[in-house]
Design a protein that fits this description.
The protein has 357 residues and is α/β, with parallel strands linked by helices. It has three domains: 83 residues, Winged helix-like DNA-binding domain superfamily/Winged helix DNA-binding domain (Arc Repressor Mutant, subunit A); 58 residues, no CATH class; 198 residues, Rossmann fold (3-Layer(aba) Sandwich). Helix content is 43%, strand content 17%.
Length: 357
């Protein structure tokens, strides 16, 4: 495990130099790649040789170019992309290039100060990059765009999984709070044609969402509203979606957001929190790895179902049930304390949730 860091950094070097794009048309020798990227051929050879052992690149005989570009290189092997390597090219729908550049770029920089992060309330990005994570992404639009593309790729299967797993038959109107461009809300509307929706986000986000919704052909069933979920949330919906928001926040910020949601809810409304739910024990879980990103980049954390129940209770809400999906996330359904009587039962891995036993 410890030595994997070397290969990860080699992959970052190859990707950040644009070598996959250079190889997208035909194989090239190390010397030609070094000339095109402005690096030392001898050092690049060591990196490419290592990366070629991981099924990202493969060595092939150097082609006869006919244009002199490979002159003097015909006894040198050339490097070609494998199908895996093709995912590192600009614009590939997998988002792998954006993932490598983000995880091994600014997130790596923040991870290098993790020991210091554990001694202070300042985040790793504040220590390493000088700004909180989301402020940094706004200051660096190129990296912000790469992060957004990575998130869409990473969470690509989640919206449809949530829409299939949760029974929306009781609802007529849904509001997605902090819904980004609207991928989750639109998936819910597609799966449940009887629903209409509101996407609520900051003004800039709502504007981007409006364009995305128009392009999706769902503008007749979905509108946008702008504002801050720390202050107020649009009233009048049956269901309120809150997806991948709370894990970015500390407890006090979570309670502020949840109280805004509670203030907008009617006695029959339900709040649907979409997050990874950690098991209470020591078993492996992808959320425990993601939690390392949370402690590095934000003041937030991944949480168990009981921890979410405790946060909800502080905001006057009660966790009613946890609905698993066929993705990494679950749907935590909450109601007002004065709302419908919760189902009796326990939240998996936590014991009884307060008020349900």
């Amino acid at each position: 495990m410890m030595f994997n860091v070397f290969m990860a950094r080699a992959l970052y070097a190859v990707t950040s130099l644009g070598i996959p794009d250079l190889l997208s048309d035909r194989p090239l020798s190390c010397r030609t790649l070094a000339d095109k990227t402005g690096v030392r051929a001898g050092s690049l050879h060591q990196v490419l040789r290592a990366v070629a052992s991981t099924d990202v690149l493969r060595t092939v005989p150097s082609p006869e170019s006919g244009d002199g570009e490979e002159k003097g290189d015909r006894n040198e092997p050339a490097y070609a992309l494998t199908p895996v390597g093709e995912t590192l090219c600009t614009g590939h729908p997998s988002g792998t290039r954006d993932m490598v550049l983000t995880l091994q770029g600014p997130i790596w920089d923040a991870l290098t100060v993790l020991p210091q992060r554990l001694t202070t309330e300042r985040t790793g990005t504040e220590l390493a990059l000088g700004l909180p994570w989301f402020d940094y992404l706004r200051q660096r639009p190129d990296r912000g765009a790469a992060f957004d593309r990575m998130m869409i790729a990473v969470h690509g299967a989640e919206p449809a999984a949530v829409a299939r797993a949760y029974d929306f038959s009781w609802a007529r109107h849904v509001t997605d709070i902090g819904g980004g461009v609207g991928t989750l809300l639109l998936a819910v509307l597609r799966e449940h044609p009887h629903l209409s929706g509101v996407l609520f986000d900051l003004p800039e986000g709502a504007e981007h969402a409006r364009e995305y919704i128009q392009a999706s052909g769902m503008a007749d069933r979905c509108v946008t509203e702008s504002g801050s979920f720390f202050d107020t949330v649009p009233p009048g919906s049956d269901a309120y979606l809150l997806s991948h928001i709370l894990h970015n926040c500390d407890e006090d910020a979570c309670v502020r957001i949840l109280r805004s949601c509670a203030a907008a809810m009617s006695p029959h409304s339900r709040l649907l929190v979409v997050e990874m739910v950690l098991p209470a024990g020591d078993e492996p879980h992808p959320g425990k790895v993601l939690d390392l990103a949370m402690v590095t980049l934000t003041t937030g954390r991944e949480r168990t179902a009981q921890e979410y129940a405790d946060l909800l209770a502080r905001a006057g809400l009660r966790l009613r049930k946890v609905v698993p999906t066929d993705s990494a996330v679950s749907v935590l359904e909450a109601v007002l304390e004065t709302g419908p009587i919760p189902e009796t039962g326990s939240v998996p891995g936590t014991g009884p949730v307060p008020g349900t036993a």
